[in-house]
Amino acid sequence: MSAALAEDRAADGGLAAGRAAYRRLARRRLALLAALVVLLLGSLVADLTLGPARYSYLEVIRALLGLEVPVSVAVVVQEIRLPVALMAVVVGAALSVAGAQMQTVLNNPLASPFTLGISAAAGFGAALGFVLGVSLLPSGWSAWTIPANAFLCAMGCALLIHVLSSRRGMGTETIVLLGIALVFTFNAALAALEFIASEQALAAVVFWTMGSLGRTTWAKLGIAAAVLALVWPVFVRQAWSLTALRLGEHKAASFGIQVGRLRLQTILLVSALASITVAFVGTIGFIGLVGPHIARMLVGEDQRFFLPASALAGALVLSAASVLSKAIIPGLILPIGVVTALVGVPFFFSLILGTRSRAW
Amino acid sequence: MVNTLTVENVEARYGRRAVLRGVTLPELRGGQITALLGPNAAGKSTLFRRIVGQLAGPGTIALDGRSLEALPPQHPDRPCYLPQDTSVSAVLTVFEAVLLAGKQGGGSWAVTDAEADAVTATLMMLEIEELAARNLGELSGGQRQLVGLAQALVRQPRILLLDEPTSALDLQRQVEVLDLLQQLSRQRGLCVVLAIHDLNQALRFADQVAVLGGGRIVAHGAPTEVLTPALLREVYGVDARLERCSRGIPFLAVDSSTRARAVARAIARG
């Protein structure tokens, strides 16, 4: 090894070759992101064609572009199906980004927003409304009782973890263990509520926990999209630091990154993202796990590619699940959480077992 | 230009256990290699972490007379620390991992030609450019250690703290890496501090050594003056002599360990 010899070899074209190889890698990753965008658009349009009445792709595209179509088609596509289809995209992206960052900061491939008990807390909050009629909002906001209860309980759970881990300086393993303990606690509390619930309330709780996009409104879609849009720039700004975190705490700290602060900030943002989506669509836990793993297999863990790839992969998986939930039994819309698990898990297994490169 | 690191009366503790008890290092200057020696758990890694600010505690750490605490965490003049642990599960290529270090965890998403060239030049310097497209998880321990060195060198530091940087390397690579560090130190004024267990490598490549024991510096100075039989017996519990080969290069010949002798006596007594 010699610094002088290396300079000679660099002058002989070594630098140009290294630069070209890196640019090729970056272009390949951008092409994969573009492919995910195309697939997502295809899935979105397919989602809009399906429902009690089936429309052609041409009709849907014309309706979306405001071109001439029967009024009924325009109303159904634009007012009824579009917010639901877009909600699948936004929720899929949000849950997948949340899962990606949770896996990154906790250095754990099994981590997802739900590892910390967020989903279980949301389910408990919703059940409080369904079973006991408790509203955590002031009176006059009854239409928002269930999502608000779910959101506030989920955020309460996240804040509890935030406070405990700030004060005690916990490591990632302890945070995960604490989260798992909270999952069991909230699930037990939910079971207790279900035990005393009326038949009607019990059915409502069970349906809510299965996850459904059917309760979407433009207002809910707007709120979920706004939270994602607010959180996104923070992750973009932290992209290099978050990538460095995957090299290990000590290595990241040696780059001057304040690891503890970055981890807690990310956990809080991820919790907000997951809480708001769970509050609106119920429990769809699988996306936060599978989306990041698909992204990781496609583009690696450089957050400049991993972050958008996670969002796109999660959006694509949930949008495709929405299509399947309407296509499997014509005329019946299956709960989206059930479809993502039943169809997505075998697909995920095939990816994990079929890939030659390391998935984690 | 930053070229002198001062470490005085530095303390550090894990909970109630004091690991460093008023450590003062000899002045660490650019153009020099300092070997930080001491048995396992002597506090070498802790001292590095204390110097770069990963651990808090009393004491003075200054760069050219300016307190290190006054510099922001990602300031380029801060000492660059390469931790000992090379295990990593990140799905990143070697090129990306070194690029990431060059970015020091911040900056624009765009990668300029100069940044990409700096990565390639560093990989070439360590003769691992053929690994550029390989994933970190596919590398051997020694290759990961070289990538870690590349991550440190790509940042073009003025002060480099290396925690056992050659522990996973074969003999040839050990000599090559230490030789490269010596070149960089001499030619570019780099100040290198390395924690190392191989005392013969310390004798050969270090300009000065500092020996940690019991949370304090027990000796420091020129390697051949510090590594005396008495010190080696006190710190490492071995009987050893400093010899010179036919070419005049000093080396340590270890006769026996006091613990091994005690065990042999106990066995003999039955």
Automatic annotation (TrEMBL), chain B:
CDD domains: ABC_Iron-Siderophores_B12_Hemin
Domain ABC transporter: 5-239
Keyword check for Transport: yes
GO molecular-function terms, A-Z: ATP binding; ATP hydrolysis activity
SMART domains: AAA
Alphabetical keyword list: ATP-binding, Nucleotide-binding, Translocase, Transport
Similarity annotation: Belongs to the ABC transporter superfamily.
Role according to the record: Part of the ABC transporter complex HmuTUV involved in hemin import. Responsible for energy coupling to the transport system.
Protein name: Ferrichrome ABC transporter
Source species of the chain: Teichococcus deserti
Source organism phylogeny: Bacteria, Pseudomonadati, Pseudomonadota, Alphaproteobacteria, Acetobacterales
